[in-house]
Predict the 3D structure of the following.
Amino acid sequence: MIATIGHLLLSGAFLASIFAMILYAIAAVKDDIKIERISHWMWGIKGLLLLASSAILIYLIMTNQFQYYYVWNYSSLDLETMYLFSAFYGGQEGSFMLWILIACVVGLGLIKWTRKPYRAPVMFVMTLTQFFLLSMVVGWDLNFTQIGASPFRTIAQEMPNAPFIQANPDFVPADGSGLNDLLKSPWMMIHPPIIFVGFAMMTVPFAFAIASLWTKTYHEWIRPALPWTLAANLSLLTAIFLGGYWAYETLSFGGYWAWDPVENASLVPWLIGTAGIHAMIIQRKSSRAHKAALFFAILAYVSIIYQTFLTRSGVLADQSVHSFVDLGLYGQLLSFIVVMAVMGIGFYLYRYREIPSPENESKFLSKEFMTFTGSMLLFILGFVIIIGTSSPIIGKLFVPNPTPPDIQFYNDWSMPIAIIMAFATVLGQYLFCQKHTWESLAGAMIIPLILTSTATVLTIVFGDVRSLYYMVYIFAGWFTVIGNAAVMFSLIRKNPKLIGGTLTHIGFGVLLLGVLASSVYTEPLLDREIRNYNARIAAGDVFDEEGFPVTQQVEMFSLEIDTPTLVNERYIVTYRGYELSDSPRLGQQNYIIEFEPIDGSRPFTMTPEVYPMLTTSTEDNIDWSVDPHVRTGWFSDIYLYVAGSKYVAQKNEELERRAQRNTMMPVGDQGEEDTDIQSIELTMGDTVAAGPFTFSFINFVPASEEVLPDNTQIGIRALIRVVHEPSGNAFEVEPLFAVYTENERSYTYSPPLKIDRWDMEVLFTRIHPESDSIELTVHGLDEEFEEDWILIVAEKKPFVSVVWLGTFLLMGGFSISIMRHWRREKDTKEKE
Amino acid sequence: MKPKLIFGVLAIVFFTSLLMYNFGNSISTYVNFEEAENRTTSHVIGTWENSEAHGFSRETMQFSFHMKDQDGNVRRVVYPRPKPNNFEQATQLVVVGEMRNNVFHANEMLMKCPSKYNDPSQLELVNAQGG
């Protein structure tokens, strides 16, 4: 019932968006302020309807109404409250709703702050995008076609042919299938909202660009559009950072960036948006680059839609772990991108001749040329990444059935582009402050160049850099940092409000240095045995059982419990066992691994986790997932996860045995328990083997009075040494044997002694005086017992902190620029 | 203006062809095991052949199993990491690596997993990840 209301509200919002769109169009054409006012109301009503319908969806999630497909698919009973919100935008439909909601709020801001003549056309474009986005979730089942997928559809509507639905149409699952465990992270809670803030705000420069083409006012639009573009970029950057940090902390690929299509989907709009910002700044300062500013503003949003299309239409299904379930929205998404691209690019080309262009060329050594170069390079980089991400489509030109491009493709292109960009930033910033000739520029750069060279040489020497390519790259990185810092120092004295730009460029340089250090100079942590083995593999001396040479290096090593192992000649690493814990995840193991640096610095403990993936595990098959531990340091991080353990191996074996028993012996059989009791006879000095253990009877030890029962006649202990032969671990136990009388009868007393680690109990059960031997009874002696072990994958990653620092500087720079442009906009508005 | 325009067009053409050439080289096509014999890196799609022996060896630190490609060729595949945990459930495997002497050395392995709900209406309830 309540879901029907939600569905109707959503339909109402969709209709409202159509009305608002038509009204805004009329208002823009007729320049009618009254109609415009009505349209604003429609926008507001649409927002309220949407808000109400989102509230209903959240209510359904909160109250665990699993008859609804969306609730069932993304939520479950055990989900913590804060992640119930994540469940709201965990799927395609909900994330569309969140996007639309945020865009609604952005629209309210535009209504309030935008002036004539832009307001009506800008809002028209905004409603047009809302129309398309709402159509994805409206869920109208017309006879000939289906429009959108409603988050309010029931399981029965989703899969009418399923047998359990045909048997019982009112079927309600007892529990939801749950939010993916990997998404249960605070980072992943805030990541999607922030990215949609970025997407929604990036609509604004697009809308202004269209409005400017519409009204043929090519100069003024950038002033209101610039702060929005900057804010959109800040949001995208923050979202990219959060996503990267989350990937690094929770996934096992061991990095913050993998050129995954979905990562690219947020990077490309950021790059093109940044290109647009550069073009807008030239236009504002020098009244040039009108064409580029318009073009990039249009393209930034089109790239968002294009990447949305790629990730949500199912095109990338085979290529990315990220891609959404195909909801059959292919056609709708395709028309969205086509309409936006045709409207944006087509309108742009139609007006192309009217757009002002500069009368004279800019000189090479001018801020305009340098900034424009930066802008073009950002665009080219974005373009390269779009090509790579589009491999399922564009790749068909080359091969049938194309695979994604090698990671190398992205690296090969981005590195040289980044190097040229780096030099352009410094030249551009110098020229922004002051006009320069080659001579004066050379003079001003002497000190930064000396510092850069020194820093580069030091980096090369201490970092043991061998590649000439990397040397150039490092030089470019340091030059960006030092050159821009020099500009910043002189700016701080003159006008500290202007440092936003230089700060972002310093951040870019820092990022360049950090990326190289943390990716190229990552070293795996391995013990000596594996390192030697890898050296032999490299030399071609290792052959597999069929006699073929082994070429793949081993990236992990195993640790036995309490056995210190020297790793990379740097750390003594000891595995101290695991704790089972059901919090926050059921069946989770927390492994404890101690690191002791041999140079004497402070020891530390790493605690990676392994847990069963709740969403995909069943009773017969546990889908284990790892949660790496990252130890963050100023100079380097240690990244470590448990790739295998005795516990997990045993659990899997148990499940396999149970599965076999279930198939072969349907009638229960529980006869296995008592088989692990074993008797061992020993004379003094003897050693007897039992399974992987040996028992040595060393000596008799007198027993103290207080542990003996009353009326004891004999009370003696035996000193027994138990050794686990494969590992060499040993325990000494002194089990007690006593004979006492009670009611004139003799009894023996043999309390069990427990060896906790092996889950074994040793009892001293008899003395044979005639042969001078004793009898031990051992419980829990496992014939196949092996010591606890784990397999570890660990890496030392230098200067990941520098990557984060660079990102923070970029964010800081953007924030300062937003404030500055926003304040100036407000000031000019108040003057009017 | 004219020579500059020509220069610009040439630069764009040169850049685009270089990009597309490089792009064309860095992608490849999915192949079967027989075709993989003559290639350095191949992507092969197939299914796990569970009648043959499989397992992770703690000595060689490799997981080894047999896979049947889409044309029915069965080959041994070695993978230098522990057995991925959802391996048995996978309805389809993609291995990326090199074929040498009839053994496929996988550097990467991707698994496509079926739904946990045994729903025959060919609906794949793969858990989508937001982001």
